[in-house]
Amino acid sequence: MVHDTTPYAFRISANNPVPLPASEAELVSTVSHRSGNAPLARVYASRTPGRPFWIHSAPDDRPLCSVTPAGPDTYDLHASDGTPLARVTRRPGRLLPWPRRTRWTAQVAGPSQRITGKAGTWYAWLLYVVTAPAWLLWVLCATVYSFFDGSPDDFTFGRPARTRWRAPGTGTVLDYRGVSRTYRHDPRRLDVRLAYALAVLRTWDRERRLRA
Fold first, then answer.
1. CA dihedral defined by 166, 172, 176, 180, rounded to 10 degrees?
2. Which one of 11, 39, 128, 160 is CB 3.0 to 4.6 Å from 120, fit for a cystine?
3. DSSP state of 93
4. Is 165 in contact with 199 (CB distance < 8 Å)?
5. What sign results for the dihedral spanned by CA atoms 200, 81, 17, 75?
6. pLDDT single digits (tens) 27-65
């Protein structure tokens, strides 16, 4: 576990699943300052879909916490000794009947605290909508050109992704920046176990939707 209280940035790297000998789990992701750096933590997942995943401290492989699905887009976070830490929920975004952003919420236990993060800032979404006709036309032209040129390039544009998790009276406790794909974490304001769990869930959700 990170003991330093200085704010720092980290990334979630998805690994090709690495089976563990005589185990029902496999190494699926790592938490590190940058790709290729020594990891801060490792993420192990059950080989059976819908089962828990575990986050271990990288230096000594000590269990930090487990995350268990508790329903559709709902997850329970427990300490290594089984103590409940938080319940994380994801509310999907939508356009109709009124627009709303995807929202990640963590209800922290003992003391009770609610942390909320919405995908994309309001000004990024405004710019995204205003410029949509221009880049849609560009994507259409580029796609037609690639069809005749034989290029397999992907010309799609991603939606605004920056997500800031905030707590009442505390401010931003975790900040995901879509361009660099890094999470800025302040250990003085948010338990590192919850920070890693939120980052892993959000990263996996994004990758799953890109593959869909």
1. 160
2. 160
3. -
4. no
5. negative
6. 899 999 877 678 999 999 987 777 889 999 988 889 999
Residue 102 is encoded by which pair of tokens? 């995807």
d(CA 151, CA 148) in angstroms, rounded, equals 8
Q: Which amino acid belongs to residue 92?
A: P
CA dist., res. 47 & res. 22, Å (int): 12
**What is the identity of the amino acid at 68?**
T
Q: Which amino acid is at 163?
A: T
Query: Which residues are registered as beta bridge partners of 124?
Result: none
The one-letter amino acid at 111: P
CA 164, CA 189: separation in Å to the nearest integer? 13
Please give the angle made by the CA atoms of 205, 206 and 207, to the nearest 5 degrees. 95
- Measure the CA–CA gap between 42 and 31, rounded to whole angstroms: 6
Q: For 77-94, write each residue's pLDDT tens digit.
A: 999 999 999 999 999 887
Q: Which tokens hold the place of 138? A: 């560009």
- E strands, 136-191, are 163-167, 171-177, 182-185
